[in-house]
Amino acid sequence: MADFPSLARQTWHQLEPVYASVYFSPEVTAQADALGYDTTERWPAYFALRAAPLGAATAQLVTATFYSFSPHAVAEHVPGIWRTASPQAVLAARTRGVDATLRAMLGDRIADPRLAEAAELARTAAEAAALAGRPLAAANAALDWPTEPHLVLWQAANILREHRGDGHLVALQAAGLDGCEALVSFAGIGAAPVANFASRGWSEQEWAAAHDRLRERGLLDAEGGATERGLEVRDEVERVTDELAAAPYRALGEDGCARLAELNRPAFTAVIESGLLPTQSTLGILTVRAPGPR
Question: What is the domain range of residue 234?
Fold first, then answer.
């Protein structure tokens, strides 16, 4: 019998780089710059690009749905980002940027019928995603589908990763991990250096307090490394995340998941070989242990 939770994780690892390229692509950065965002730092455009499907979201809504960002860091940019450009304008720019990015990376492969097949399989999975309690997935699923296969593939990857991410927050809350604790515990398993999480905006005092809370619960040692119990909690978070992410892949079936991974490989490889994605990040992909915070 197919292990669809594991297939959900494996397929996400295949699709996430294609989706994540939006936040590192020079073509998308150019579109954000044209809208008037300060692209000398990452976060104004990031918050705009990811939150735009929610409409003119408040800082409270973005903090709640993004989860692991400090409320203070979010408030530095939201709702000010909507004074720079409307959510509708951001979404249009996002589409133009993704289009240019994938065309640049894929070249002639953009017209490969196998890419179109991959897009249809990914869309089938995305349209099978239950949206109750999944605000970011639902907001992206409500957008019109593009017609070009490479954009369909990206949009499906977008919906599926936000569907997984929304479920991941449920798993974190069930484990009793708040936004800062989620990052501290993730760093504790060695998924990424502590310095990589500084951009999430938590102060040294907030990070230390979260460490102390987790240490009191027996999840971290004095140096910030995960204890055996801490590893168990993180593994349970990922197990629940995988379970909650599995339904779209059940709709594809085991053969469909394998076919999607095969057909998506050129796009996956193109993104990885482009060097756009950082070699160490908090994306949770390409890590040895378990995928975690977004």
Answer: 4-274
